[in-house]
Amino acid sequence: MASNSELLKYLEFKFKTVSSVQKISDELIETCLSAGSKDNMSAIVIKFEDNTTPIGVSDEETERLAKIKNELEKFMWIDLSSCHKNCKPEVIVYIQKLLKLKKFDMSWIPGAGIHGFSTEIESIIDEYYVQYPVAKVITKAGSCVEDPPE
Questions:
Q1: Which of 10, 38, 94, 144 has its CA 20 to 30 A from that of 115?
Q2: Quick one: 104 exposed, middle or buried, by C-beta within 10 A (0-12, 13-18, 19+)?
Q3: Residues 114-125: pLDDT tens digits?
Q4: Is 45 exposed, middle or buried (0-12, 13-18, 19+ CB in 10 A)?
């Protein structure tokens, strides 16, 4: 779902901020899935450096991302408590909602936009529903169904 140049921007950003190549690969797959790719995907990410420390981003970029994550978390907790009390949304459903609301800057992660935050969005949803459990899930089709046991 991404062009080669978008993919390169995404990986360039991730190599600056994440030291684990495995984590970068896992997040790449999650980002693609949340953007609408099908689940039959593979990714091989190779880093040709002997260094395990992220290259780093500027202080301004770090502050910008921290501010966006903080605003996202605040918004989601309020929204989940008011709009999703009885039914837990799937991550893709919530990302689609955020896209429709146009509430946040969609160029958060170069080459991935809001989809690059799918793992953070999933964590926020999971944290909320650990504190306020429900037995139903909103699916991509928009229906609220019983959450199957894991």
A1: 144
A2: middle
A3: 777 888 889 999
A4: middle
